[in-house]
Design goal:
The protein has 12 helices and 9 strands. The chain is an alpha/beta fold. The mean pLDDT is 97.
Amino acid sequence: MSLALLCPGQGAQHPAMFDRVRDVAAARPVLEAASAVLGHDVIAAAARDNRFDNAQAQPLLCAAILAHWQGLRDALPAPLLVAGYSIGELAAHSIAGSFDAGTCLALAVQRARLMDAASPADAGMQAVLGLDRRALQPLCDARGAHVAIANGHDHFIVGGRLPALHALATAALAQGAEVKPLPVHVPAHTPLLSAAVASFADALRAAALQPPRLPLLAGIDARPVRDTAAVVHTLSAQLAQTIEWAQVMRQAFERGARVFLQLGPGNALARMVAPAYPCCEVRAVEEFQSLEGAAAWVRSALQRQQ
């Protein structure tokens, strides 16, 4: 089959993000496990003002992705591959079978804690649109900012300390770029979080890992992750290394993905894939009133792509 599952990162959390799954029996174990690791009800947590704080956001995102997957999996054919964006890569590994949902949620809590501990207090992330990498990289280098995620030829997420980001924004705007601050307060996927890498690798090694049973593409280099050593390396390295998301999507397409479904909240990943690959069919679960509607669309889209 040509179905690719996409697992998003932070930024799209909202109070209704569990509405499609809160009464779905298959999703209930994930929601209960998420409530246990958070120490309070996960559905209520989605409505709190602190849902964008790293410690809340990371387990919330994993819970939403995995709850939607559990609600959909019996209605869908096995996917061709799965890929995750930032924290979404952790959830993607759970879907692929590297570890179970409970382990994923516990790792999300540890990941957030380690990132917060390693992060400078005055740090964040912003999107820069309209400059290619050859133009953006020197601006980052001169100001101490870093390319965190490469979404497309002129669409990047940058991270750094706030003074560096402000200086970069001024320079990028002067060159005609568009700059958008993001509700993320750690410089993820930049060298500023290097101190978290070894500790998260240790946490991964201590977990009950299995080789992925579904093809999964690593964010740092778009290569398939085939064994537990690669699980540990790619998930820990991405804390401090650029995510090459455009390469991941190119590799997914080259491997035969023609139908893309984004799980979890928002539709940011779907909006990036659709214009880049107009021959494909791309939707997000949140575009449908129900999980049944999303599953029916996937089945129809796969038939159309045959």
